[in-house]
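Q: Is it fine to ask for two folds in a single conversation?
A: Yes, each is treated on its own. Send the first.
Q: Here.
A: Result:
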Amino acid sequence: MHLFKSKKSLGILFAILAYFSFSVLDAFQKTAVIYHSIFQLLLIKYFFVLLLAYFESYRNQNIKFYLSKNIKLQIFRCILSIAESACFALAFRYLSLADAHSIGSLTPVIVVILSSIILREYVSYKTWIAIFIGFIGVLIIMRPGLSIFDAKSLIPLTAAFFLGFYQVITKITSKYDSPQTSLFYNGIIGIIIMSFMSFFYWKELNTTSYILLTCIGIFFAIGLYFQIVALTKARASIIQPFHYTLIFWAIIWGYLIYDDLPDLPTVIGAIIITISGIYVINQKTTE
């Protein structure tokens, strides 16, 4: 009864629920992206982001959530969001959930690299060593130079870069706008761009389509909401490591739904990336 008495424990609980929701989202996306265009998937996701923005604004009594102090930065941030979402969705079309998430889990490491370049944040030599080790984990999974290497494995790596870039820009944006404002612009700009793109790449919908797309929107919004709540209860450094639970869920959903099991190099690479990523996050908070 007293397990989640502290705010920190509640934050961890909501972080676990957030990444579980994202894992279910990705399981739906892997099926939906086969029969629908990526732009249709993103359109429904940004529609639910807009709904979440209204909900969060009402909850926080932020009646001027639509006013931004840096529109250009918000637009750029949304473009990065679209790029990373599109790349991850595309990765699920060609790769197993475990492979895509194992490579994509390099994101926290990329955040540190970009933070040092863009935000001029100090990074110790120990952290740089951990970052290098993390990239070795990616190379073990991708196996470049071997016949087993698949160029499509570069897609989640690109997605991880855009997601890392997006998170750094989000950190800058937070100095100007509230989370509700960022959610609003993410939703409205995403809807405008995806509506235009979907017009040219529209695929016919059926009953299954409506179920898949609705589930994608719901679990995406739930995941985002739980993530927001988690960050209000605990520091980002405490929440971030739970990002790696996505690999665990990806293996489970991949096996249960798609009969996919990661091979030994993927498991080894994922473990290396996870350990190096958690170390980098912990080092960053102590520097």
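Q: Second one now.
A: Result:
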Amino acid sequence: KLKKERGAQFAAELATVDGKKLALHSKEETDALVEDIARQKLSVKEVKKRERRRNPVAPFTTSSMQQDASRKLGFTSRRTMMFAQQLYEGVELGRRGPVGLITYMRTDSTRLSDLALDEVRDYVGASFGADYLPEKPNVYAAGKKAQDAHEAIRPTSVENTPELMEKYLPRDQLRLYTLIWQRFVASQMTPAVFDTVSVSVAAGERYIARASGSTLKFAGFLAVYADNKKEKDVLLPELAAGEALSLLDLLPEQHFTEPPPRYNDASIVKTLEELGIGRPSTYAPIIETIQKRGYVERREKQFRPTELGFIVTDMLEEHFKNIVDVKFTANLEGELDGVADGSLDKNELLGSFYKPFEQTLKKAEDAIGTVELPEEVT
């Protein structure tokens, strides 16, 4: 913890010792380092200021909607799809009768129709002003496996604002609709702009510590939609190279690396999408199925494999290695696309799969027999 002569305190982290990245291996080594730094004179070595932009995010696909609803609203994938289905099928809006509030909710495309783009650009210009409206519509790249049959998930009309829909929608439907509406509007706004400052602090000749701060200069799309990168304003006092600093405190803290967390609804959907397992319509049913069959349990919003889950997985990996291989599902999706566009014959595809599969199945049935789960002694 450091302080200017007449100014605020700030924290800096020790980065290098004798020009090399800091690496400490024991308490004794750390204590010796702390004592040595305490004896050094401290001064600002370098101050860098720059502007950083954060671009808006694409409108929702099924996958990104399920992930966002899980993170921000605590919804399971199944609940998200249930509410989305209701919003798509239509909601009674007083005298207007039933109105479908969102476009089709099973999609892997980020494409928006020209009509929707014109409407949202008019809305952004009128509601937020010219600074928030990009010169040309923002276009987002589709994923490699996107089929692009439908548009992205968006409100059917940007004029149906969450505020206007509040009196017609139950709480959870409204929360999901608000998320979809905000993400759609934000996707067609300008980037957020941050002022960032990075400071190098010298302690004697040997040590360099670093501190960085950022402040939001222009909200851009963040005026509508808070993305998942939580960025707090970190203010550093005004500093100049060569300025002397005084040391308030040295904190030698030990940190341990954590194992990767268990899957939750958001991370499992993201992984399924990245690995090419399933399609927008099957993410929620896949998660439902592994729970119904007792392979995993949901505890504290995390999925934990059960004993049955471990046994089934081990068996499948032993006897059906090709089929439980992640690439199998992704390749099959590609081959089915080939059948759809006529470049592959369906009977050939089925034949090449079923003949070896039949043999494997026979072998596995003989080898496995029936499996009894041991009864647990209570």
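Q: Anything structural to flag on that second result?
A: Two points. The radius of gyration is 28 Å. The first strand starts at residue 2 and ends at 3.
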